[in-house]
Amino acid sequence: MAKDAPAERMKRKDYEKELGKLQVELCHLQDYVRENKLRVIVLFEGRDAAGKGGTIKAITEKVSPRVFRVVALPAPSDREKTQLFFQRYMEKFPAGGEIVIFDRSWYNRAGVEYVMGFCTPAEHERFLNLCPQMETYLIDGGIILIKIWLEVGMEEQERRFNARIDDPVRQWKLSPMDIGSYRRWYDYSRARDLMLKATSTEVAPWYIIRSDDKRRARLNCIAHLLGAISYKRIKKDKIKLPKRSKKGRYDDQASLKGMNFVAERY
Length: 266
Known about the structure:
By secondary structure, the chain is of the alpha/beta class.
């Protein structure tokens, strides 16, 4: 039987129309989270070039960075390597009224650390055994945990890597780890499957989103996020600007004469 033809990639106009609607709902979600002091963690994992950064940007573009905080930790320092494995991630956990988005998370141990040999097989096995217990503890403590895996195909990943090589504004996205992940595609596939089997639990399941079409993936991800948190629109009084006080009135533009202004080149 012939395979179904791949879906046509979403057009920008349709994408932006739907994205605008979803971003309005994200603002309503933000109000509800802040009003009710909810604590939310969203994990983004997936292969390199799967579209994590673009999806996170679409989520956070129209909301407050004081509510939606993005955490993208660098490689651990020598000091952090001596800490409990989860310690440096817990420092970034949300307080009441916050949504913390991890652009890669403690699941580095199940992926890049395991595949590239930065942890021992015993440390990897210990992580897979203990991680569900730790996440159950978080959820029992009142944290809403949402785990998302973006799955990109082999050919699409190669296309995106080549685009980064040829584009100076995206070359910074290519690291030695990216090149290593490209070469070890099947090692990462096996590591992914071990991770999903061990850590997709009833209380903290993984949700997989195919991301060969970035636009569809972003919309599907935001729609899933909105559906994963029960929220209502918060009724707010309409804001009305007060009249400006004319007390102490003076020419506040004249006082700027002689100051250093940036040249208006555009």
